[in-house]
Amino acid sequence: MAKGTVAWKIIKDHLVHGEMEPGKEIAIRIDQTLTQDATGTMAYLEFEAMGVDEVKTPDLSVSYIDHNTLQLDFRNPDDHEYLRTVGLKYGIWVSKPGNGICHQVHLERFTKPGKTLLGSDSHTPTAGGAGMLAIGAGGLDVAAAMAGEPFYTKMPKIVKVELRGKELPAWVSAKDIILEMLRRLTVKGGLMRIFEYVGEGIKALSVPERATITNMGAELGATTSIFPSDENTLDFFRREGREQDWVELLPDPDAEYDEEVIIDLNELEPLIAQPHSPDNVVPVRELHGKVKVNQVVIGSCTNSSYRDLKTVAEILKGKKVHRDVSLIIAPGSRQVLEQIARDGTLADLINAGARIIETACGPCIGMGWAPPSKGVSVRSFNRNFKGRSGTLDAGVYLASPETCAAAALTGYITDPRTLGEPIKVTLPEKFIPYNDALLLPPLPKEERENVEIRRGPNIRPLPEFDELPEAIKGKVEIKVGDNITTDHIMPAGAKILPLRSNIYEISKYVYHYVDPGFAERALKNKEQGIATVIVGGENYGQGSSREHAALAPRYLGVRAVIAKSFARIHHQNLCNFGILPLEFVNPADYDRIDQNDEIEIPNVREQLTACVKEGKPIKVTVKKPSGESFEIETTVNITPRQYELLMAGGLLNYIKNKQQAKKNA
Ligand code: MIC
Ligand code: SF4
Predict the structure, then answer these.
(1) Measured between alpha carbons, how far is 509 from 496 in angstroms, rounded to an integer?
(2) Is residue 109 part of a domain?
(3) Which of ligand 1's atoms lies nearest the C-alpha of 382?
(4) Which residues line ligand 1 (CB under 6 A)?
(5) Are residues 540 and 638 in the same domain?
C-alpha cells in the first residue's frame, strides 16, 4: 500500500471518511471547485436545488465560461447570463467568455499546492502540474461539493512515474512524455490510479509543461496525476506574482508506491496519436512526409500556454504557413494572449499566416473550425475521437506544438527534428497579472441579495426521476464495443452543445452519430412502460465528465447499462442518475446478448442489496426475439454510498430524502 507520497499526503490531510486502501471508499474534503459552461448550467441548477444560501467551499469556487462561446442564437448567451448571475448570487468567482480555458486560467490564477480541487470537467487534473490534488467529476458531484459535501470515490492505487535523465532531447517536449504513457498504458491503463511524477527528469519541466502531462493523464482514465511542489513550482508562482500561494510538497524519501513506471527522457522521440484514439501512438518519423495535412490547430487545455505559443512562433518566425494548410491558434488564456501581444510573439504568428481565434475551447470540442471532408487535422489537443472535430470523416492527429508547427510549414506530418536548431523558450520574468475585467471576484454578501438570476428560455428545470423499481422489464436498444466514449453517447459540437441546459431537447441526440434512431426508440419504450438497456464492452463511458451522458439517457428511460467494465467518472454519473452499471460476471456473455433482446431483472432492489451485502450475482433473464431465453449473471462494482444512490434513483433524490428525514426527525 502506498505511503508518504505527495498524493497520499494530500488525501490523508483531507480524509473525512474511509480507509486509504486501494478500492475502498473514501470521502475527501474539497477546498476548491471549478465548473465550465457546458457542464456548469446543470451543475448550478442542481446546486440551486440543494437549497443552500451560498457556496460552502473553504477556499473558492470558480465558474468558467469557455466551451460554448459561439453565439449563433440566444442559447449560449442565455446560458452565459445564467452562469454570471447565479455565480454572483452565491459567492462564486465568474470567469467571463474571453478570459480563457478553465484549466489554463485556474493553473495561472488559483492553484495552491497541497489543496484539493474538484471540477466538472475531466481535465481538472491539469492543476496537478502545480501540486494540487485535482479531480474531474460530474456536475452533480461538484454541486454537492459547493454545498459543502465531501467528495466520495474509491481510493486509487498510487503509481510512481519516474522520469530518468536530465533533460528532454532536442525537439521532444512534455506532450511526448504523456503520449509515451498512452502508447504504453492505453486509454484504460490509468483506471483507479493516480500517477505521481518523480525523479531527476521532473526538474527539466516547468509548471506549464507538467500541466500538459497531468492534463492528458485524463486520457489514461486516471483519477488524477500530480507533480510534487518544488523549486520549479515556486519559480512559476513567482512569475505569476503569487509566491504567497506556494508551499513545498515533496514525497518522503522512503515513500512507497503501489506500482511503478519508468521513462528515460533520453530515449524519447517526437510522438503522434493517430485517428481516432489518443492511445493510437506512433513515432512521428514513421509518418514523416507521408500524410498530407489540411489543418493545424494549436490550443486547448493541453498545449496553449505561453511556452507553447512562443515555441510555435519561434519555429514560424519569418516563414509562411504552407499554401494548403489552415493554421488556427487559440491561446489558452487572456494572460497568455496579452503576454504574446505585448512581446511581439503574436505579430510573428500573424505574419506567418496563423488565424488567431478566441481564447476558448473552440475547435477542441467542435465549437467551430471543423476540418474539411476527409481532411487531416494535426492538433496540439488531447482527444481525437471520431467526429469530435465536427467532421465525421476527418482524421485528427494529436501531437506537440513543435510537431504541429512543423506540419503547418511543410503541409505534411513532419518530424520536427528535420527543422534544424531546436527552440528553447524561457518564461517571462513576470506574467501579466490578472485584473477583474473578465474575472469577477465573488460579490460582497450585502450586494448578493440584489442580484436577479437570469433564466432565458433555454434554461429548463431538471426532470424528476423515480426510485429504483421492484423489477426492470426492458429491451436492449443498442450494443456497442470497447472504449465507447461519452462523445459517442452524448455528442458535443456547435449544434448540440447549446442544448446542455435543456435535457428534453438534448436527449434527442443520445447516440446520434452511432445510431440516429436510438433516442426515438427509447422514448417509445418509455411511453409503453418498457425500460431501455444498453450493452457495452470494456471501459464504457471513457473520456469526458459530461453527466449529460447519463442524465439524458435516464430521461429517455434507460435503467441499466450492462458492460464488461466502466470508466470512473461515467460510472459515478450513472449512479448519480440512478442507472444500474451492471458488469458481466462472465465476459463471454457479452457475445450472447444482442440489440432487440428483451431483458428482465426481477426483484432488482432485493438482488442489488444481496449483491452488495453478500456478493451474490444479479440474475438477468435474456429473451431473444426467436423466443429462446436464458439467464446470465451480472454484478456491480459499487461503494455503499453508490448503492444508496441507485436505490433512491439518483443523488438528487438521495439528498432530498436525507433533508426530508432531517425535517421529520
Ligand atoms: C471535453 O473535453 O470533452 C469536455 C467538453 O471538456 C468535457 C466536458 C463536457 O462535456 O462538457 C470533459 O472533458 O469533461
Ligand atoms: Fe476545453 Fe478541449 Fe480542454 Fe475539454 S479538452 S476543457 S473542450 S480545451
Answers:
(1) 8
(2) no
(3) 2
(4) 38-39, 67, 121-123, 136, 365, 383, 492, 544-546
(5) yes
Q: Which residues contact 309 (CB under 8 A, 6 or more apart)?
A: 298, 329, 331, 336, 340, 345, 349, 401
Nearest to 206 by CA among 248, 174, 179, 253: 174
Kindly give the distance from the C-alpha atom of residue 91 to the centroid of ligand 1, in angstroms, as a whole number. 24
User: Which of 118, 544, 547, 568 has most ligand 1 atoms within 8 Å of CB, for mutation?
Assistant: 544
- Asked if residue 620 belongs to a domain, the reply is yes
Residues 495, 614 within the same domain: yes
Same domain, 485 and 630: yes
Residue whose CB lies within 8 A of the most ligand 2 atoms, among 121, 216, 359, for a mutation test: 121
Task: Count CB neighbours of 658 within 10 A.
Answer: 12
Q: Which three cell numbers stand for residue 389?
A: 472535430
Asked if residue 107 lies in contact with residue 211, where contact means CB atoms within 8 angstroms, the answer is: yes
Block means of pLDDT (10 residues each) for the chain, 665 residues, are 96 98 98 98 95 96 98 97 98 98 98 98 99 98 97 98 98 98 98 98 98 98 98 98 98 98 98 98 98 98 98 98 98 98 98 98 98 98 98 98 98 98 94 94 96 95 95 98 98 97 97 98 98 98 98 98 98 98 98 98 98 98 98 97 98 90 87
Domain tally, the chain = 2
Cell of 80: 452565459
**Coil vs helix vs strand at 288:** coil
Residue 277 belongs to some domain of the structure: yes
Same domain, 379 and 486: no
Give the domain extent around 395: 271-419
Phi, psi of 214, deg, nearest 5: -70, -35
Q: At 273, which helix (H) or strand (E)? A: strand 271-273
**CA Rg, the chain, in Å?**
24
Helices (H) and strands (E) in the chain, counts: 21, 27
Ligand 2 atom 8, closest CA: 300
Q: Does 311 map to a domain?
A: yes
The closest alpha carbon to 27, from 40, 44, 15, 12, belongs to 15
**Which atom of ligand 1 is nearest to 548's Cα?**
10
How many Å lie between the centroid of ligand 1 and the Cα of residue 116? Answer: 20
Is residue 546 among the annotated active site residues?
yes
